[in-house]
Amino acid sequence: MENSTTLFLARWRNSVHPKLKKIEIRGRHREGDPRERAPRDLPPRVRKLLLVVRQFGAGTIREDDKGGQDEVCAAIEAADGGGRFKEDVWSRPGGGGGISRVLQDGGVWEKAGVNVSVVYGVMPPDAYRAAKGVKDGADDAKPGPVPFFAAGISSVLHPKNPFAPTLHFNYRYFETDAPKDSPGAPRQWWFGGGTDLTPAYIFEEDVKHFHTVQKQACDKFDPSFYPRFKKWCDDYFYIKHRGERRGLGGIFFDDLNDYDQEMLLAFSTECTKSVVPAYIPLIERRKNMPFTEDHKTWQQLRRGRYVEFNLVYDRGTTFGLKTGGRIESILVSLPLTSRWEYDHESNPSIPIDGGVL
């Protein structure tokens, strides 16, 4: 697993910004050779991971070779026409860190967040169960802390105009590493992620375009991916206590390790690259449409559903909270504004150009 993880990190570097080398890691540091910057008391595997993380972007990211975070942020700023991202480079006390970029109160975006992270360390069994999406007693982890490593990119984009849809995407790699007969989870790796659309008002041409791009990305690797991952998305983004889906779907997968590791990394990268062509054309169509206060109220009510799912059911949110993750980065997915009304019923008399979700 050590070699495969190092390969993964080397191939994933284009999704990570050079500023990751500024992350502070606990332990002794020396100037000069980056191979001497890792604490010498770390286990060999973790030490190697740390060395690779420290060299992310060190002469590997060119101006014409942008990573996923750069590409998405550039497209968002261009569509906004004036707003700019605030960037935070952060460290996780338990190991690793990341970069959070947030654009708030722009011309088009109420809130747009795009994060990358590379974290490792140990997590309690309940965090492992959250990461795997299993119930107590149904997993293969023994009592005790679970060594883990995770890397990925995630984003949620909330536009101001109620006719412009919200978008979420997340692509990640995860592994656990407990030797045989030791406490914790067994050695294993998997990929997870997806891209999904959550409009307040439905425009069939937008939905068709979005799903067409998702299918094209999937079909480059396996024609079974799109129907399989589309259904998975519909089933996952379901608000059980409301009896309704969060949005209009997309693709979603998790715990995926039954294909070649390099193939799954290439697939995740392709899906990340498909975000801009799938989503930005919808924003350009809808961002300047006139709307009323009634339209805005309905958008706020639908955002309430979004918040409910993220705080109650989302595996990524639960995992981040249980592993002591950075709260600002974990909750960046929540909109600036949302609304709950007692026993609200949608008003079909509201004049709209698209259908009500």
TrEMBL record:
One of its GO terms (cellular component) is chloroplast stroma. Its EC number is 1.3.3.3. It catalyses: coproporphyrinogen III + O2 + 2 H(+) = protoporphyrinogen IX + 2 CO2 + 2 H2O. GO terms for biological process: chlorophyll biosynthetic process; protoporphyrinogen IX biosynthetic process. Transmembrane segments: none annotated. It is found in: Plastid, Chloroplast. InterPro entries: Coprogen_oxidase_aer, Coprogen_oxidase_aer_sf, Coprogen_oxidase_CS. Keywords: Chlorophyll biosynthesis, Chloroplast, Heme biosynthesis, Oxidoreductase, Plastid, Porphyrin biosynthesis, Transit peptide. One of its GO terms (molecular function) is coproporphyrinogen oxidase activity. Pathway: Porphyrin-containing compound metabolism; protoporphyrin-IX biosynthesis; protoporphyrinogen-IX from coproporphyrinogen-III (O2 route): step 1/1. It is an enzyme of class 1 (oxidoreductase). It holds the Pfam family Coprogen_oxidas. Belongs to the aerobic coproporphyrinogen-III oxidase family. Involved in the heme and chlorophyll biosynthesis. Catalyzes the aerobic oxidative decarboxylation of propionate groups of rings A and B of coproporphyrinogen-III to yield the vinyl groups in protoporphyrinogen-IX. Homodimer. This is Oxygen-dependent coproporphyrinogen-III oxidase, chloroplastic. It comes from Acorus calamus (Sweet flag).
